[in-house]
Structures
1.
Amino acid sequence: DADVTQTPRNRITKTGKRIMLECSQTKGHDRMYWYRQDPGLGLRLIYYSFDVKDINKGEISDGYSVSRQAQAKFSLSLESAIPNQTALYFCATSDFSGGLYNEQFFGPGTRLTVL
Amino acid sequence: SQKIEQNSEALNIQEGKTATLTCNYTNYSPAYLQWYRQDPGRGPVFLLLIRENEKEKRKERLKVTFDTTLKQSLFHITASQPADSATYLCAGTYGNKLVFGAGTILRVKS
């Protein structure tokens, strides 16, 4: 079984709809991240969480919200989707035990299309 | 803000040759530079990291260098194979966050 899973893998939605992307991990890591990837722009950090009670905004948090329901679960919501949120979304985890070295483990991604 | 820049043009090389990919950063040096491999339709996979005070790191056919004077990291794959074809991402560790470059596509032809 995959260590980091994301659901759904693909989603097509309409402008103005609320949508939630879910991430689960079995690695036992405390740290979880949400990124979006756009062609030519690389991965950009949306939100990150270092434990259940800790949520932090990343580089591009406007239009997004997150919930850390448990150590293993971190969900990303688009309250009112817009076409420029069409992108590939990745969840990632990392373990602090290595200090600041911060190797991240990624899920398979969710391809979101907003029409 | 910190930026990580990678060559946007694809690198095409012949099987057996050494592939060299470049990663440049602006402003402050990251504490670590990491390299990831990404295949189409998949999430990035960690390959190697190098600390700011290290000059070179090796792992099997992979070698990475870190030059703080040039503000650059080079990633080498020796004896390249068609299976090495993928997008390679460079990422700098700044505090508790990774800042990613856009990636370079590598194509190895047999």
2.
Amino acid sequence: EIVLTQSPGTLSLSPGERATLSCRASQSVSSSYLAWYQRKPGQAPRLLIYGTSNRATGIPDRFSGSGSGTDFTLTISRLEPEDFAVYYCQQHGVLSREVTFGPGTKVEIK
Amino acid sequence: QVQLQQSGPGLVKPSQTLSLTCAISGDSVFSNTAGWNWIRQSPSRGLEWLGRTYYRSKWYHEYAVSVNSRITINPDTSKNQFSLQLNSVTPEDTAVYFCARDVSMRFDFWGQGTLVAVSS
């Protein structure tokens, strides 16, 4: 099973600042199958990024994704008040057919 | 717009079977491009994918190793929905359960979530 580790655990920032979130895999992940989600309290996760760098429908362009191999990054260029939430990365193993999620990074208001 | 509506009990006794249903609107359980998944989240285990069913000329099922011996995910083609059955539950199975659609293993539509507690 591929284990995903996210850092930092908590990111304290102010609106307007840039957020950089890291997702590291225990072994190489296909870039086609790396996704990011946003979760707010009481809501289901929301797909933000798929295939490492593709924004999902309706996602603003301040969200961007990058990376390859074992290291992936989600960047929020300028934080809006509605962006304070928990963010999860997720991968799908091409050979193992299993899905794993990272433990999440909480982006909180400083 | 795809919508997924979950239903099922919020309390299950230890050793019994957890059963949830997810009704699909705006898509078909027979979709040749989508898969139909169950995912849960708990403080101790985080987000955990449990399994999926999908149709590609015939029905396929894939389950997480962690629950493989206890889980069944089945389509209900007459009602355009799918279900989760998890047998022999313990308090460790207490979680918020979500159904979700996947396209190429990204989860683009989710149900509203159901908190299921395992307790006597």
3.
Amino acid sequence: DAKTTQPTSMDCAEGRAANLPCNHSTISGNEYVYWYRQIHSQGPQYIIHGLKNNETNEMASLIITEDRKSSTLILPHATLRDTAVYYCIVRVHNQGGKLIFGQGTELSVKP
Amino acid sequence: EAGVVQSPRYKIIEKKQPVAFWCNPISGHNTLYWYRQNLGQGPELLIRYENEEAVDDSQLPKDRFSAERLKGVDSTLKIQPAELGDSAVYLCASSLDLLRGGELFFGEGSRLTVL
């Protein structure tokens, strides 16, 4: 079973920041948080991942709370092409590191 | 650098027919995964290979599904015979060192429709 909880859907205005929350209250100390997104009819695309510290790359920022029980993916300036399903995943360390996907959040960026 | 390559992209068959999907992972990636994604759901892991060894096939329906990864490079997933409920997208992914914080790279998927 997935170890994360995400809202089913969210809307965001084009050009604004999209903040996607994720709860992972049962996360263990050595388990990473991964974010992937899936645009319609494509395979999932890696966005970012982190363990304890906040992370930033050219696509997004990942904010992990100090207790690590939740995180937020931030797309700083959402565009229409960011419309996709976003998956927050806790990588299960004791199962060879496999990624167990949940239902994800369907983000709609509107003009 | 080429990504994960899958074929065919689309396949339509009648129930009880066999079907096979092929995956070529990113060069040098020792770990290969097959996922199945039903409509409106997240991907579900079917099998994971470390080189040529299947190390996690607990979710693979072994009565009709089989997979192989000869020589530890490309892989084939087979369904025989296919059932209506097998209609889904079959995704292949590969990684180099997931346990050390690496990432999974996915292919575009093979969409199966069973009539």
